[in-house]
Backbone:
């Protein structure tokens, strides 16, 4: 929308949306050239320095005399830190620069918190300089930062124990791969297969429990405590299940290490790497009631070390 408005008044610009990192990094590196206009999302070009003059010392001197890079913000971010990061794109490494934020009273964040009801002003071309408005925006950002901090704490409460469980199983699995425990090749492959299988099932169960654990609050029980109890009980059954299924399969194989025979009994590697997601329905419900940012999902897969492969023998 901004790019189209600039085109109407014959101002050419680059539009960046973080979809092509390599190409956009080159564009952003040259965003400090004379007359360059770049419309960008917050995520585009993170970590790329904007060089005044696009790397040309002569042009850099001209741009510096004109005032350097000028950053214009067009909406309020939920985090003060992000606003400050955007402001910080100008004036890097001692270069001159300036920044300004133009925020509408119809900005999504202001509407969400009802600022338009507090600040009543007629439509006008002149900027509305109101200390009450500035104070309200700062208050909104502090509130959201507090909410997000609480959400991160809550997510950690759910994910930390799963991570501890992963580490314990991973150490055992790594020991098997390194041959620290005497086993026949056949037993090693079968045991690793079921170790992966039951861990995958455990993650699926964790996801299922997380979907409805918030209902424990209706019974005056702490959801996180109940979550820990249930996944601990489930996790404690994994070693016995692995031992049982490994013994049963070894008996069927009769000591054979033939890949074809293993596949015959269902010990077949998946065609692709498995990925498991926990959808934070509880967090979604809480966020909706707080009028906070949209729900996000975190990937259990991220917690898995590259060595903790889901590929099966």
Residues:
């Amino acid at each position: 929308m901004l790019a189209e408005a600039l085109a109407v008044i014959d101002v050419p610009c680059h539009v960046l949306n973080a979809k092509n990192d390599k190409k956009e990094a080159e564009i952003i590196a040259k965003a400090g050239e004379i007359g360059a206009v770049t419309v960008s999302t917050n995520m585009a070009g993170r970590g790329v320095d904007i060089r005044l003059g696009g790397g040309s010392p002569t042009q850099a001197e001209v741009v510096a005399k004109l005032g350097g890079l000028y950053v214009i913000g067009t909406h309020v971010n939920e985090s003060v830190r992000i606003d400050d990061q955007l402001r910080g794109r100008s004036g890097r490494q001692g270069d001159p620069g300036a920044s300004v934020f133009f925020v509408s009273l119809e900005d999504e964040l202001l509407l969400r918190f009802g600022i338009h009801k507090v600040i009543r002003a007629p439509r006008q071309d002149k900027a509305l300089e109101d200390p009450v408005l500035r104070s309200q925006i700062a208050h909104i950002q502090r509130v959201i930062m507090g909410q997000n901090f609480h959400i991160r704490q809550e997510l950690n409460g759910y994910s930390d124990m799963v991570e501890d469980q992963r580490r314990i199983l991973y150490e055992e699995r790594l020991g098997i791969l390194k041959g620290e425990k005497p086993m026949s090749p056949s037993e090693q492959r079968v045991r690793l297969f079921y170790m992966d299988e039951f861990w995958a099932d455990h993650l699926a169960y964790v996801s299922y429990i997380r979907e409805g654990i918030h209902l424990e609050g209706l019974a005056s029980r702490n959801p996180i405590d109940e979550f820990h109890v249930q996944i601990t009980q489930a996790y404690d059954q994994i070693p016995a299940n692995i031992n049982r299924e490994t013994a049963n399969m070894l008996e069927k194989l009769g000591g054979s290490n033939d890949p074809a025979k293993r596949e015959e009994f269902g010990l077949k590697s998946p065609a692709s790497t498995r990925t498991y997601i926990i959808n934070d329905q509880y967090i979604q419900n809480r966020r909706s009631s707080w009028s906070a940012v949209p729900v996000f999902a975190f990937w259990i897969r991220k917690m898995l070390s590259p060595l903790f492969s889901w590929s099966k023998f």
Observations:
- Confidence is low (pLDDT under 50) at residues 271-313.
- The chain has two domains: 2-102, 141-303.
- Strands lie at 14-16, 38-40, 69-73, 97-101, 277-278, 298-299.
